## 1
Amino acid sequence: MKTLDVKIKDAEKVAPIRETLNKMLIAQEEGDHNAFAKTFAHDQDMVNIGTDLDEVWYDWNSFYHWMSQAIDKRKGYSITEKETHITLSKTGNVAWYSQLLDTCLETKGEPFNIEGFRHTGVMEKRDKEWLIVQSHISVPYKTNEQTDIQS
């Protein structure tokens, strides 16, 4: 029974973290800039990395400016969370996560569907709220063996 208790405790501890991540995804789907902003720390030294070479932001303001435009373009596209892993630090005030998502992404004006879109990051507990302080998104690379493309 001890193992079960530990699992239940951990599930309870990570539930607010999972809730913040879900709010962030729903905010993007619904085009809700304010709800999206509430899931991130507004730090001037935070880091967010996108999928394109020029998509690296080292502060909240520049990241939010770019994301506001991206959210407007993606409003109405669904984001399906397929898998989320959350690890809580020993102190209980820091967590890191990884997610696999299915979504539609628009980059450089071109929309496309992505299965297994990757989102990773770090969160801190501040004033009883979990906030994303660092995030990174990536698109899975398919080798020729995984596609219908023949050389």
Note: The chain has one domain: 2-141.
## 2
Amino acid sequence: MAHIRHRNSDASISLTPMIDIMTVLLAVFMVTTPMLTAGIDLNLPNAGNSALTGNDHAIQISVDAMGRYYVGKTQLPIDDVVRRAVAMRGENPNLTIMISGDRAADYGAVMAVMGKLKDAGFQRVGLRTEIKK
């Protein structure tokens, strides 16, 4: 008489690690998405008949007339602006950065943030303008 062995295997899948990962991803996207498109009100300079306005997937960095830096609507020191951009680049290596400088902003303040972003390895950095009216 042959003995038949029955194995009782637990074929269940633990969903906890997957739920944890999805929660972290959701939190990251919820925090970064508003910063990509929202910005402060600026008086942008005119630059001819075609304007460089950026796209929905670009990080918007603003420099107001007083030389203060913003990512979205959050005011930050220049080094924190660069750190935040580098952190976002970890999620999207092809990240574009659009710098919006107020017409009355100091040219040096706009170029300082652009230079620091270039030093941090960003290749796609542009200046946002308005169409000449």
Note: The chain has a mean pLDDT of 78.
